[in-house]
Design goal:
single chain; about 280 residues; mainly alpha
Length: about 280
């Protein structure tokens, strides 16, 4: 499943703006070469569907009560850059969950957390105005503009990371976002099971691809205990999905939901809470 052409077009436009802005500074960072740019964009385009589009698909096959679903907790307090990037992905998806629930206060809470996470990664100034837009749209109950603004905010964070030569963190944002999407979608489908709904979660190639991209990260990120945990979770998740070529059963989805919930909790945990370095899923049979 790919993000929409519209989403990718917005992202490319924001990247161009980011470089144009950077070229006006006295000491701009060195630009990524063509291969790095294409690689970073390829990873993002292939890695994760837009939460808004994914949840729109869920709405077509089920009638979830979004107000009863977990909208996520507070942003983690940590200096771990890998965790911060993963958490940005999780909290972007949390924002879309809050929009589906039409919970304006939760959208504003998510915007606050996004600013905190982005500030810790050094990209907060570029999305400050978007954070204000999220608040304004939430106050006015403008849900469609909110969806668009959330999508643009995520893309702007990624474009800034490209400009700062932090393009590897884009993979982590994509992984965090997709894991949170699958966690919440599996809960919805378990409660209102249908084969059509289960099919939306059956993306073994996507999970394997994300895991392989994590393996290609720089050593410091690649060997981070949480990143290793995420990679193992993705690999075992893909194996589970691949074992069921005719569709995930309700029982499969229950296992999937439980195991992804563990890794998302680890991503969202503050430094005071220990993070397990063991794989979240049991070895495949």
């Amino acid at each position: 499943m790919l993000i929409s052409l519209r989403t990718l077009s917005i992202f490319l436009f924001l990247v161009q703006l980011g470089y144009a802005f950077g070229s006006k500074k006295n000491s701009p960072p060195s630009s990524l070469n063509t291969g790095q740019m294409q690689g970073a964009l390829y990873v993002d385009a292939l890695s994760v569907p837009s939460p808004g589009e994914f949840f729109a698909s869920i709405n077509k096959v089920s009638r979830p009560n979004w107000t009863t679903l977990d909208h996520g907790g507070n942003a983690p307090v940590t200096t771990n850059r890998a965790q911060l990037a993963l958490a940005i992905g999780v909290f972007v998806t949390n924002g879309f969950i809050a929009v589906e629930a039409q919970d304006g206060q939760q959208v504003k809470n998510m915007g606050r957390d996004m600013m905190a996470l982005s500030k810790a990664l050094g990209v907060s100034q570029t999305i400050l105005s978007r954070g204000n837009n999220l608040v304004d749209f939430a106050d006015d109950d403008q849900w469609d503009p909110l969806r668009n603004e959330l999508e643009a905010t995520e893309n702007e964070v990624k474009s800034t990371m490209l400009g700062q030569q932090d393009h590897y963190l884009i993979t982590l944002i994509s992984a965090g976002s997709w894991l949170r999407e699958i966690e919440i979608a599996s809960e919805i489908i378990v409660n209102h099971y249908s084969q059509r709904g289960a099919a939306l979660l059956q993306e073994p190639a996507l999970a394997f691809h994300l895991a392989s991209e994590l393996e290609s990260l720089p050593e410091k990120l690649r060997t981070d205990p949480l990143v290793l945990n995420v990679k193992e979770t993705l690999n075992h998740l893909a194996t589970l999905q691949k074992k069921e070529p005719y569709g995930l059963t309700k029982e499969d989805l229950g296992v999937l939901q439980l195991e992804i919930k563990k890794i998302v909790a680890s991503i969202s945990a503050s430094d005071a809470s220990p993070l397990s370095s063991k794989p979240a899923l049991p070895p495949a049979l």
